[in-house]
Amino acid sequence: TAWCLIYQSMALLTDVTCFLYSLLSSGNGCTEILSRCKVSQFLEFYPQHAPLLPDTFSFYTLLLWIFALLSLSWQLLLRLQPGRRSPEVLFFPDPSGAHVRHLCHLLRGSRKRMWIAMFTLTDDVLTQEILNAWERKVDVKVILDDEQCAVLGADGARLVEKGVPVLLDAHEARMHHKFAVLDDCVLTGSFNWTKQASMSNWENLCILRDPLAVSPFAMEFQKLWRAFG
């Protein structure tokens, strides 16, 4: 298993370190040890590592072998971390409506925060999920583009009427972001929250759960909130 490989790699590194230290303590130079010492000598003292190491290895090769094992172990460890789940990618158009239903499911699951920066918001179904989150006391904040907020069917005013904190960019440049930070995941891509985007346009929406991806989006949202507030 992955954990077994990680454990064996760390045990191997520990024993190699002890072995090298004992040789250095005997007065041999590091270069001499690495050039002359064979893995077979190491295995005489630590035979439990024999399944991992061919005894014909030089010590230089052994160190490279350990580095490769540690790199593989590190990659496996990252994959095993709960916060580093695989991303999802949704593509549109999706006439079935399955992707929007999945998006609604994610919005419904938010319990701590729902920070949305959206160029165009006209989909009443998604807007209702924002309002539902606001009613269940989620930290809801919405940033919209000022010009797009004035188009026919825009839902920004509906959110404001219900008390949802909404900011507009009020700038000659466009607030062209399309992302949402939901608790510990982020939704981002080309997808505007509109019926046109979900039913007709060629769009993409990525669902990222890696904290290293979520954190920068949360920081960017807070930066925008301060700038437009």
Question: Strand count, sense and closure of the main sheet?
Answer: 7 strands, mixed
Strand content: 15-25%
Low-confidence stretches: none
Elements, N to C (H/E): HHHHEHEHEHEEEHEH
Give the number of helices.
Answer: 9
Tell me what you see in this structure:
The protein is of the alpha/beta class and 229 residues long. Helix content is 49%, strand content 16%. It has nine helices and seven strands; from the N terminus they run ααααβαβαβαβββαβα. A seven-stranded mixed β-sheet has the order 1-7-6-5-2-3-4, with helices on both faces. Helix 7 (156-161) links the parallel strand 3 (139-144) and strand 4 (166-168). Helix 1 runs antiparallel to helix 4 (59-80) and helix 5 (98-108) runs parallel beside helix 6 (124-135).
What topology emerges from the helices and strands here?
Layout lengths: L1 H24 L4 H7 L2 H7 L13 H22 L7 E5 L5 H11 L4 E6 L5 H12 L3 E6 L11 H6 L4 E3 L9 E5 L2 E5 L5 H5 L3 E6 L2 H18 L1
Parallel strand pairs: 2-3, 3-4
Antiparallel strand pairs: 1-7, 2-5, 5-6, 6-7
Describe this structure in a few short sentences.
The protein is α/β, with parallel strands linked by helices. It has helices at residues 2-25, 30-36, 39-45, 59-80, 98-108, 124-135, 156-161, 195-199, 211-228, and strands spanning 88-92, 113-118, 139-144, 166-168, 178-182, 185-189, 203-208.
